[in-house]
Amino acid sequence: MRKFLIASHGSFAGGLLSSLELIAGKIDNIFTIEAYSDGSKSIEEQIEKVLLQIDTADELIIFTDLMGGSVTNQILRSALRENVYIISGVNLPLLLEIVLADTDTPVAEVIETGITNSKNQIVFVNKLIPSND
Amino acid sequence: MRKFLIASHGSFAGGLLSSLELIAGKIDNIFTIEAYSDGSKSIEEQIEKVLLQIDTADELIIFTDLMGGSVTNQILRSALRENVYIISGVNLPLLLEIVLADTDTPVAEVIETGITNSKNQIVFVNKLIPSND
Prior knowledge:
homodimer; about 130 residues; alpha/beta; Rossmann fold; 4-stranded parallel sheet; 5 helices; about 20% strand; globular
């Protein structure tokens, strides 16, 4: 089974999930980690709790907020193993495309296509609007 | 003055702001719109409330969640005017770079550079890790 984890500083992860579910409906098999939120457990403890719900046959795609950030770094230290795939710099188009992808498509292909398309969704919208000049 | 607005479906906008402020500290002049959240006002009303706090001499950079989504479309209809700049597909690297940019740098340059760099921050992290093969 393909499972998902969004991991971030603060409440970004849960916020992104709320946005995803408003657009796509309830998603199963998706977890969130919100580091440094008030009262939250350590990142390590939160990762461990998620990994307990992942079977060795599962694929786990992890979306993180920021390359080089402490959350991504801790994910790399604690969660990287076979069948775990980590993507940094998540935005909503990336999450939507990968979570909604056909699970028969190989995971690496889903990720590569999702990354390419999500980059193209970061758009300076003003430039698309015809000028009145 | 340069001001900022994050607009999203659900609580993504506030979550992203929490992440930004955990990393960069308290940010002034930044607003959020969370559409379709329980009990929230309409997107139009929320935009109007933000625009009341923007002077004509201010620059307003608006980050939205999704190109073609209803939030971005409503922002385009209600907020696009002189000195308003809209970027869709926001991720944390984009927000960090643009919000923290030197305000002496022209806004279009800040945005173009930020978009280029944020695309490069969407990374399939596994591919950066040396293989043991």
